[in-house]
Amino acid sequence: MTTRRTPGRPASGDTADRRSAILDVARAHFAAKGFRGASMRAIAREAGVDVSLISHYFGDKSRLLVATMELPVDPVDKIRSVIADGPDGMAERLLRTFIESWDPHHEVFSALVRTALGSDDAHAPMLEVARNVLVASLLEVLVGEERELRASLIASQLIGMATLRYVVRLEPLASADPADVVRQYAPPMQLLIG
Amino acid sequence: MTTRRTPGRPASGDTADRRSAILDVARAHFAAKGFRGASMRAIAREAGVDVSLISHYFGDKSRLLVATMELPVDPVDKIRSVIADGPDGMAERLLRTFIESWDPHHEVFSALVRTALGSDDAHAPMLEVARNVLVASLLEVLVGEERELRASLIASQLIGMATLRYVVRLEPLASADPADVVRQYAPPMQLLIG
Predict the structure, then answer these.
(1) What is the CATH number of the domain that holds B154?
(2) How far is B16 from chain A (nearest CA, A)?
(3) Residue A43: which domain range?
(4) Is the pLDDT of residue B7 over 70?
(5) Domain tally, chain A
(6) What is the ipTM, given to two decimal places?
């Protein structure tokens, strides 16, 4: 593995330093250019490392984005496991996994939403994850007509529920038992999954 | 109609002045105490008018709250007309009315959401309308089990869709034809209405 040096940003040092340097550069690129505009090669160049080192540490661009957010829940892993079993019963798995993952971290979720929606930043990391992890993953599973519109409406249902449960804390949703939310909300979501 | 005078806040003057004085006081009370904590009597007292004058100008407390927001769309009127015809086909009427009302004012909606969610203010006017106009009106129509949870999940669907369409501007939802959104999204919402 070769590394290219950039003045003032040594690529040498231990793994933790290099990971941290890559994440700093990646965070700045995602903020400035958005997910689509950001390039793994450009990030590697500025961090003074080979692009294969970024893939080795973090995986693909979605995972790099998620790594920059230092989330308590890995949305890529979670959604991969949900979609792996196909569309049958997916709404129930998606809702149960989402609620079980985020209930213990509702304050983090709330801060992410407040940051993303409180600013005018179309490339807020939370929004990029919604677009490029959630919606993109749903599209791998959905078939039939208007699948892109349906994927964005499934995201609407999920993000709306999470916003009222965690951010607005609308009762009785905010305190409802996860099983009750899943039982009521999975059928309407499954209708859009097909 | 009697009016009580408060020093420095004359209740006399023309109607526009009095309406405006009432709205200023009401806005401050809703901001400080929230919808439930705010009292029509206390607002009347501080504005130096009789409470019956507030009812005469604005109607009930929900309408007074809405009046303080100076919205381009009156959500009380809109939702009254939607629920007047009962639960059959209500999701379609609710979505069509909502989208037709807010599409031309999407920037106002976006500013309301950003203000409500960007701050830590549990009594943001937009949230009070969601609770005390939208959810309260849905509850007048819903019957059957867990109707309060279902009402908050219908609000989740509506607010999630509007946030992704107007604030996040997620495509293809942001540019989708209203008829396509209604056709795809009304059945899942109707499932929660019953």
Answers:
(1) 1.10.357.10
(2) 34
(3) 15-68
(4) no
(5) 2
(6) 0.87
